[in-house]
Amino acid sequence: xxxxxxxxxxxxxxxxxxxxxxxxxxxxxxxxxxxxxxxxxxxxxxxxxxxxxxxxxxxxxxxxxxxxxxxxxxxxxxxxxxxxxxxxxxxxxxxxxxxxxxxxxxxxxxxxxxxxxxxxxxxxxxxxxxxxxxxxxxxxxxxxxxxxxxxxxxxxxxxxxxxxxxxxxxxxxxxxxxxxxxxxxxxxxxxxxxxxxxxxxxxxxxxxxxxxxxxxxxxxxxxxxxxxxxxxxxxxxxxxxxxxxxxxxxxxxxxxxxxxxxxxxxxxxxxxxxxxxxxxxxxxxxxxxxxxxxxxxxxxxxxxxxxxxxxxxxxxxxxxxxxxxxxxxx
Length: 330
Ligand code: NAI
Hints:
The chain has eleven helices and twelve strands. With 330 residues, it is α/β, with parallel strands linked by helices.
């Protein structure tokens, strides 16, 4: 059956094409790679396809879903874990939605740790200096992670790997989760305690109505002065303007951001030759204590292979049985 199934693959990058072509060698689906993202304007490209394959910054709202259904598309195959960009409620009963719940929690947790170490030990600064044969150490003083308290928000697959990494550094771990793990060997506290006690806070929970802007002016005020925030989850967990203000006021010590609330129009693209329109992001990037990577945490060889294999297996499962273990329902 796979040979007849046509997949419209949106927001395709070179690395996606390599990993999906490799995974598809056996499956033999007809995959058409589109560079453009899926949205209300580009949904017309999905005509004649059975499946659309989308990523984190494609727009799958009510209008897009209605249009996909009208065109006879049967399945939205997310090649990512988060599904906040899909109107799941609206899709229910009209079109299937599947995702890749875990492709490599290590990739994301290790990236969070890489950002933390880079920030604390000023590696981003020293790298540029030594490239220019400047071997001065002024303003490069960091601090030991050992003995510091890290607050982990969201103790799912990624959060737990991050906790293990932090323990390796000898840090004290406190955690918050809406659904705490039973018999956890770390301390669960409420969010207020996370804000109050943490030297470093790392976010690993999904973006929902509840978690939207959980870091805002008010919560920042209740955080320790000098706190380091790491966000490898979803940008809108943090109110970017409030973050900028917190940095300006010297209340936030540093921010490590792999995600940004308005990233959809910016991330994954080369904007180096353009006049940059997003003043908040530009100002954040200009800060010496802010490190931004462009939603890169997932990007390891292992994760890309898992993403491609699981996505094709999801498509196969759903189209042949009408169900999938990785189906997303409201
Ligand atoms: P997971 O589903 O295993 O864990 C999420 C955890 O968050 C669960 O324990 C859940 O109970 C908890 N949670 C749900 N609502 C919450 C709330 N209101 N407050 C606190 N905790 C809450 O997910 P996983 O695989 O650990 O991924 C976490 C997030 O990381 C994803 O939602 C996704 O947005 C993000 N992600 C980012 C990537 C990147 O490249 N930057 C790649 C993959 C995931």
